[in-house]
Design brief:
There is one protein chain. The chain has 204 residues and is of the alpha+beta class. It is built from 3 helices and 14 strands. The strands form 3 sheets. It has a 7-stranded mixed β-sheet. A 5-stranded antiparallel β-sheet has the order 6-7-8-9-10, with helices on one face. It comes from Lysinibacillus fusiformis. Pfam families: Cu_amine_oxidN1. Keywords: Signal. This is Copper amine oxidase N-terminal domain-containing protein.
Amino acid sequence: MKKKRISLILAFLVTCTFTFGLSVRADDDNEHEYKKHEKYNDDDRYEYDDEDESYNTNGEVYEKGTWNIWTRELVMEKEVLPFSTSKLVNLKVVDMNKELNFYVIPKDGEFFVPGKTVAQLLGAKATFYKTSKILDIQYQENELVFRSGTNVVYDNNVKTPLPASSFYLNEELYVPISVITNGLGYVVEWQEDNQMFLCQLLIK
């Protein structure tokens, strides 16, 4: 009887230790993730007056934005998109023989694409932190850090406005295609005849 009781006590202690250990480790992982990205957890929003006709920074005024060029400034007006409903579209990378098919979402005058998927297609390393909804993209010397629900991206640690807020959908963080392509050194255009996005390296 004593042996049985001792065995039960030992089993209980082992179970408690194992469960507590896992809990502590999970908490530590979340804490590590939070500390790594805590500088991005402030109120990441650029505000502007709706009555303003343009946003002026460094002497440059951007009165109208285009969906495929990231000006790194706020724009007050945007051109009409080539298409206005969400659909499955191909993105082809010139000179890399790479092509990918994914859903594109037109929203707020921008084409939103799954950030991690597109970044990896362009050869970047992309890590998505599900708890904080942060997407960290690294490509050569460039780094882009997005956070869901904000209109800010950290472009090589510089807080920079997005043309529209990123959002989380179907396990992916969706970001404007202009930002992720231009930010990684590419330019993108829409080919109406082929119904696809064509992406190529910027000439420097």
